[in-house]
Amino acid sequence: MKFFIAFWLILGIAFLGSAQQKITYTEHIQPIIAKNCVMCHRPGGIGPFSLLSYEDVTKRSEFVAKVTQIKYMPPFPADKSFQHYANQRGLDSIQIALIQQWVNQGSVEGKKKKNASLSSPNTPLSISARTPDLTLKMANAFTIPNTGIEEFRYFHIPTHLTKDVMVEAIEFIPGNRKVVHHSRVMVDTSGRMSGLEGMEASDPRLVEFQKIPMADQFLYGWVPGNDRIQFPTGVAKKIPARANLVLNIHYSPSSKIQTDQSTVNLYFAKAPVKREIQSMIFYEEDITNPPFYIQANTQPKFYMSKGPIQEDISAISVLPHMHWLGKSFKAFAITPDGDLVPLIKIDNWDFNWQMTYQFSTLLPIPKGSVIIAEAEYDNTEANPLNPFKPTRDISYGWSSTSEMMEMVLYYVKYQPGDETLKQ
Ligand code: HEC
């Protein structure tokens, strides 16, 4: 592996150096930006500015060179040398070098291409080619106050489904991209969640709702830049008849009054689906070194484990979840033969970029394996994201000033060939 990286690097540097070729925006840079940046950096996107035009990019070319070199952009917190994902982002070393070189040479534009397409194949516009089978919108627009304080709110949307449906793709469309920071979609069949409407995470009544078991604790999680989850053919999530969706939306602080009415789109499988996606959810009760209590001025580590698992499974995706004190997260399976199946490794936890990591192919985990997760927290003042200064003891809870350690694995029963089934 190392050899190949070195080989490509040398080749890349030789290419950059020997050709004495002018690196131009049109020929070299625009395709990189289009593929990796404009899905967020475009008018109405969640990036703080657009990078659609040559002028947009040159205006801040030094900055672009810097953030790509330090791999701050495009954002992707997971370690790609630990596991590969279908939805991974990142520039390779040649692309990073090209941007550096282009800026060093004075950010030349080059000959304009005729009919050059400025949008990326990954823009949210192009993924909605198919009409959703069921569009579920929040009943009312929610008003986000102009207090400049972040808001965590719960909403409830009845599906009115009269029979169970198999869902092969799920999409969350924020009603107001300026303020919708992230969202989690859950499924309830108890019919007892309607009182949640608009409730704040700090509301003491929430504790009672938390006790009601959900049919699906985690149908889908959305963060900016992740516009749809699409499962491989023949694999789908079931939503039961008469289910209600429960949304937990995190709104960014706003100095202006804003409103939001977000939507969930469901795409039903067209052919009968035999393989139903299950969620394996790791939470507080799976912690093997309880209590989950993070004392002020400590940096504790907690472990969770499940298993040995009772059947051969194929993992589809992994989603780790912590709040502001999270520092690092790692998860893997140990097979009965002692082999390690890497799931995820995040060295610098970023609360703002929590995503569902979909493996490049289905990932087999054999019967008898134990799945382990470890998470580190930093409850010192040195953690710039610590919500409390001076620091306080923190316990488990849904609100973002409490902490969580959670992991959701989507999986199906293993079938031969899954290891090559691309997602
Ligand atoms: C998934 C969405 C997303 C993608 C993809 C993305 N960005 Fe960003 N970018 C953001 C957001 C959100 C911010 C503002 C918050 C922050 O700085 O983290 C940002 C900030 C920036 C900044 C300012 C950094 C600062 O410190 O203020 C630059 C420069 C930038 N992006 C360039 C890029 C470039 C170049 C690419 C592609 C190689 C890219 N971004 C890809 C979402 C994205």
What is the CA-based Rg, rounded? 23 Å
> Which regions have little confidence, pLDDT < 50, spanning 5+ residues?
116-128
Give helix % range.
10-25%
- Give the helix tally: 7
- Total discrete domains: 3
Q: What is the rounded distance between the termini?
A: 23 Å
What portion of the residues fall into strands of 2 or more residues? 25-35%
Question: Averaging pLDDT over every residue, what do you get?
Answer: 89
Main sheet characteristics? 6 strands, mixed
Highest-level CATH class of the largest domain: Mainly Beta
The total beta strand count reads 23
Q: Can you characterise this structure?
A:
The chain is built from 7 helices and 23 strands. It has 3 domains: 18-110 and 118-123, no CATH class; 124-273, Sandwich (Jelly Rolls); 277-423, Jelly Rolls, CATH 2.60.120.230. The two termini are 23 Å apart. Strands 1, 4, 8, 9, 12 and 13 form a 6-stranded mixed beta sheet that branches. A 5-stranded antiparallel beta sheet has the order 6-3-10-5-7, with no helix packed on it. The longest helix is centred in the first third of the chain and has 17 residues, at 2-18. By secondary structure, the protein is of the alpha+beta class. The radius of gyration is 23 Å and the shape is globular. The relative contact order is 0.14. The structure holds heme C (HEC). The site of heme C (HEC) has 20 residues, from helix 4.
